[in-house]
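Continuing the batch. This is chain 6 of the set; chains 1 through 5 are on the previous pages. Same settings as before, nothing changed between runs. Recording input and output for traceability.
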Amino acid sequence: MNKTVNNRAWWLVLPVFAMVAFNALIPLITVVNYSVQETFGNNEFFWSGTTWFKQLLHDDQFIDSLQRQIIFTATVLVIQIPLGLVIALCMPRSGPWVSVCLVLMSLPLLVPWNVVGSMWNIMALPDIGLLGKGLNALGIPFNYTRQPVSAWFTVILMDVWHWTSLVVLLCYAGLVSIPDAYYQAARVDGAGPWAVFRYIQLPKLKHVLTIAILLRFMDSFMIYTEVIVLTGGGPGSTTKFLSIDLVQKALGGFDLGPAAAMSIVYFLIILLLSWLFYTLMMRSEAK
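Output for chain 6:
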């Protein structure tokens, strides 16, 4: 039996493609154009080829920012993915408390990024902040404006508070979608909580966890507003991530060529690492 194929529905998608092209492709082409040219103002540009890319690969400041970015992203992923999964497992599946828990989990995600940075900036102040003053009162020296370890601790804690809820909601949606027949069969077989988690819940959550890891990886690798409001990249350059280094180079120094080259390399790094994450997870699932 031959099926009739109707491709007229693609005409409905064309406005979306046009909007994506306008909002993404045109700015990308502009950045690529800047990355191979030099300007001294007055809207005059001179061809420079791959000079900025070669210079970037030997730039110690870029390499240091990239290392800090990778360490930060790896740290928040190691904390947020297991923590979000544990919280989702502890949430009720039915009853009036379900709505309460979902609302509480959604609240951090509703707070704008600049407000998150301002909140933690005030809370972490060593003299009047609840976190800073409390730690100092316990005998733990804490000053995120002067101590690199304190600055890293505050930035990571802020990101965990802000984004763990996303992992929780994704995992909870995956858990409630598991049919009750699986749990009934587990009870008949006498399976314990660990066996249920290992052989039923975790396999059913693989796709959800893949999405959570990819989303959190991309978000954490592009973090800017929260950190710039909280620490400004300091003390010194302790929390100066790639995004902060890029903005300072483009707007602060007005080095359009090097900044454009850096943004392209930045984009390719995110694209490559996301592809590697997805490929490795899909291969492990296939096995």
